[in-house]
Design goal:
Low-confidence stretches: 126-136, 152-170
Distance between the termini: 121 Å
Structural class: alpha+beta
Number of strands: 5
Length: about 200
């Protein structure tokens, strides 16, 4: 709390007397002072900041209210009580934001729904990994019944049991889609190697 002499001195410096070229408009919580100044007697008053000499120039932070005043977007200068109320509001806002973050973190995320759904259906391991789909409790590498008595992924060592057309000794035979594919006249053409012509006489 400022002393009575300091209060009287601030009021005296803020008086707009005819012989004064500048007069005090106010100060912020960091000790920076703001003045009206008039270069000439007939010129319009301007606004200027006088920084606190105890604060390095790079560490000066101008409050939003005083920044508006310097740019003439605010008519009246802010008071110390207004600046203190704004700082209290900022601290309360930080506390409310932290509480909102804790409440949000305690709620289930939307990204967890597919995982919980897979666990309820018994599909995969519930982790949502690509390519790992099977019955609950079954190994991902377990063989799957193909319907004709043979299980995919199951075979004797040394045998090729790939389930594809025309691949492997145990395949289903020739792929019918190869015959059905349209062919051009020169699709099977292979150029011959170039031979130099004989020297003519």
């Amino acid at each position: 709390m400022s002393s009575p002499f300091h209060t009287f001195w601030q009021k005296w410096k803020s008086l707009q007397l005819p012989w004064r070229k500048r007069w005090l408009a106010g100060a912020d919580l960091a000790g920076n002072k703001y003045y009206y100044f008039r270069p000439h007697a007939s010129s319009k008053p301007r606004r200027i900041l006088q920084q606190n000499p105890r604060i390095p120039y790079s560490d000066i932070v101008i409050p939003v209210q005083w920044h508006q005043w310097l740019r003439h977007t605010r008519l009246t200068a802010p008071t110390i009580h207004e600046l203190e109320s704004d700082e209290t509001r900022k601290e309360q806002l930080k506390v409310l934001a932290a509480e909102a973050d804790r409440r949000w973190a305690s709620k289930p995320s939307v990204l967890d729904k597919p995982r919980r759904r897979n666990q309820e259906l018994g599909v995969g391991d519930g982790e949502g990994r690509v390519g790992v789909v099977g019955r609950k409790g079954e190994s991902p590498n377990a063989a799957v019944d193909r319907g004709d008595g043979q299980r995919l992924g199951e075979g004797v060592k040394g045998e090729d049991v790939r389930d594809s057309w025309g691949e492997g000794e145990k395949g289903r035979g020739e792929n019918p889609w190869i015959k059905a594919r349209p062919r051009g006249a020169g699709e099977g053409y292979q150029p011959e190697s170039w031979q130099p012509p004989g020297a003519g006489r």
